[in-house]
Design brief:
about 525 residues, alpha/beta, 9-stranded mixed β-sheet, 8-stranded mixed β-sheet, 15 helices, elongated
């Protein structure tokens, strides 16, 4: 990575980490300093830094000098920081300090620029060699941030180009998501609506101009362009989202037309993503839409997903939800999961259920450690066995056959859950109301008046507070924010897929749903 050009540089971190950094750096009127260690995400010529750990500096025998307009670390202390980074598994290092006296736009001083020029050059040229000698990843991306009372400046020094490169955006993953444009002199804010403002005038009246601008610069990845996904796709565009990636391997079939948004007879046999793209572009030709006819478990899909700002899942399998949950945590991407269920047949309908879950890395529990059963954990485990182990498990009766019967579905039910998702996506960037982290509605019972004392709908459950984070979950504590450092080939390469840990034929994997731990039951 050190040898390839970075044209676009961004930083993404959880609100919890961001708030702790601000609290430390701006705790008094003297300049403070700390370092952040983290992971990286790389695609094309863009690099995203994912800070994971903060290292605050304590004064040791006069090695840290601070005043109202100055902070300086002794050379020995800087070397200690660099050594800890070189010995770690992290690939990104960010130096942060404060200008607490600055209440407007904050800048790097001439002293800051000189210090960063020397430190970043060392980290780009010498640190990779030392990491290789210790059998560490040679990747090192160094950056700096300076915090004022209201604004942030951020950059990196490119020693090959001999110039500073501004960080384009700092994303704070919290409630709501904040996208901060650094105040560097060479970093321009996102462009406005390019003359399309009139189109969304009534949105702005309700949710504000800033929220509309943020939406227009948000890249959403929609996984599953079926009955729910096709409606959500159209809704996103009409909300003002300009950049959209559609992922679905299937083609339109005749039985899809009763619920597929905009589907026509002539579209039968065509890829869903391509038909959806054409339909949306006919509405607004200026949209940027990437149509990917591929399985979610493909390297192309993973590469597309890690570039987006929001993931929306309209899938109907346990393993796809599990994988999107994992990817959401790994790349710090908010994830909305939508589902519907009709219980009944032949006119005897017992339930019309819609469900939505919001996964916000660093804020909510993930699907894997939630007390809510979003998927069958044992079935998920079996789904990722290698082919030989899968055959053995089936032969021993531990896994049922692959026969699947089509699930009933109806257009109005899909519209209902699509509306919930679209309103929460809007809420994610505007914060116009408290989040509905989890939503479950049985539409069949909404007009049940059996309880004369209450006029509230029955079976309408919303979670206004996120579940407290679990300290035992691997996704939330190990994989969260790990970026490209965690290889996803185990999921995407079906020929090499194996269970973790390796399970022998004489063993069967069981999930303890009370403790959410994986155990092995031996015959």
């Amino acid at each position: 990575m050190n040898g390839s050009a970075i044209h676009h540089l961004k930083i993404k971190l959880t609100a919890e980490l961001y708030n702790s950094i601000r609290e430390h750096l701006l705790k008094d009127q003297t300049e403070q300093i700390c370092y952040l260690f983290g992971h990286t995400v790389r695609y094309k010529n863009t690099c995203i830094l994912l800070p994971h750990k903060a290292l605050s500096m304590q004064d040791e025998k006069g090695k840290l000098e601070r005043s109202k307009g100055h902070v300086h670390l002794a050379k020995e202390l800087v070397q200690q920081v660099h050594k800890r980074f070189i010995d770690s598994e992290y690939t990104a290092i960010i130096k942060c300090h404060s200008h607490p006296f600055e209440k407007g736009n904050v800048w790097f001083s001439s002293v800051d620029l000189n210090d960063d020029r020397h430190e970043h050059t060392y980290l780009q040229t010498e640190a990779p060699k030392e990491r290789v000698s210790k059998n560490r990843d040679a990747t090192v991306i160094a950056a700096s941030m300076v915090f004022g009372q209201e604004t942030i400046a951020a950059h990196r020094y490119d020693c090959k180009a001999k110039s500073f490169q501004a960080v384009e955006q700092i994303s704070i993953i919290g409630e709501p998501v904040q996208n901060i444009t650094p105040t560097n002199r060479d970093c321009k804010p996102p462009e406005d609506d390019n003359g399309r403002g009139e189109l969304f005038t009534r949105h702005v009246l309700a949710f504000g101009e800033l929220g509309q601008r943020v939406l227009s610069n948000t890249h959403v990845c929609l996984v599953g362009v079926g009955g729910v996904g096709s409606i959500v796709a159209e809704g996103l565009v009409r909300l003002g989202v300009r950049s959209l990636t559609l992922i679905d391997p299937d083609v339109i079939e005749e039985h899809n037309l009763n619920r597929w948004q905009g589907g026509r007879k002539r579209d039968i046999g065509k890829p869903k993503v391509k038909v959806c793209k054409q339909r949306l572009n006919s509405t607004l030709p200026s949209l940027t839409i990437h149509a990917l006819q591929a399985s979610l478990f493909s390297k192309e899909a993973v590469n597309a997903l890690k570039q987006c700002d929001v993931i929306i899942g309209g899938t109907d399998t346990h393993e796809s939800r599990y994988f999107l949950n994992r990817l959401s945590l790994q790349y710090l991407i908010p994830y909305f999961d939508a589902g519907t269920l009709i219980d009944g047949s032949e006119g005897n309908v017992n339930a019309l259920n819609i469900r939505m879950a919001t996964i916000l890395p660093g804020v909510t529990r993930c699907m894997d450690c939630s007390h809510i059963d979003y998927y069958d954990r044992q079935q998920v485990h079996h789904a990722f066995l290698d082919q030989e182990a899968l055959k053995n498990f089936k032969a021993r009766g531990y896994i049922k056959g692959d026969e699947e019967s089509p699930a009933p579905s109806v257009y109005p039910l899909n519209m209902s859950i699509a509306s919930f998702v679209l309103l929460e996506v809007l809420n994610l960037f505007t914060g116009y109301k408290p989040f509905s982290w989890n939503v479950f509605v049985d539409l069949l019972q909404m007009n049940d008046d059996s309880d004369e004392k209450s006029k509230s709908p029955k079976r309408v459950l919303t979670t206004k507070e996120p579940e407290a984070k679990s300290d035992l979950c691997l996704n939330c504590n190990i994989y969260r924010g790990s970026g490209d450092s965690e290889n996803l080939d185990w999921f995407t390469d079906r020929n090499r897929r194996v269970s973790l840990p390796v399970i022998k034929e004489s063993q069967v994997a069981c999930v303890n749903t009370e403790t959410n731990t994986l155990t092995l039951a031996t015959d």
